[in-house]
Please model this.
Amino acid sequence: MTPTVRHGLDPDFASEVLEDLYAYRRKRKVVAFAFWVVLGWLGGHRFYLERPVTGLLMLLTGGGALIWWIVDAWRIPVMVREHNAEQARRQEEGRPPLELAFMPPAAPDVLHTPAPWTVKWRQRGRLRRALRFGGDLLVLMVAGSALGSLAGVEGGTEAAFAVVALIAVTL
Model:
């Protein structure tokens, strides 16, 4: 199920992003109960368990005048079990997780061949790094100038320090 990258190229970390997006996260009873205690009358636990319609109904009705909220105290273990079983079933079938039910399944060879421009871009080496650094520097200088103009006459050196820190991070 994990997307693979051939040729050793993954310039924009797309495989890591897909792996993170298509992770079949299981819900925990402790977290669901914490949401139930704190935000239960607003449907917080139902939003956590991927039940947005009933969560919205609870939000609009104040937990069904708190009656629905109290009944859910006994239903939370069942709802967590149902959610986790559905996630496991979707994973076995190769379908996206519940959070991404609207997405198509991720095929193992999604990133089979890299785009031609990425291969060319990677081969340029030093020129590519220099262009990227120059672009980053330009963006940061414009952002720093905007911050400086917002700071006005009374402004301190925070904008300059922010730009220098951002430049250091991009190196």
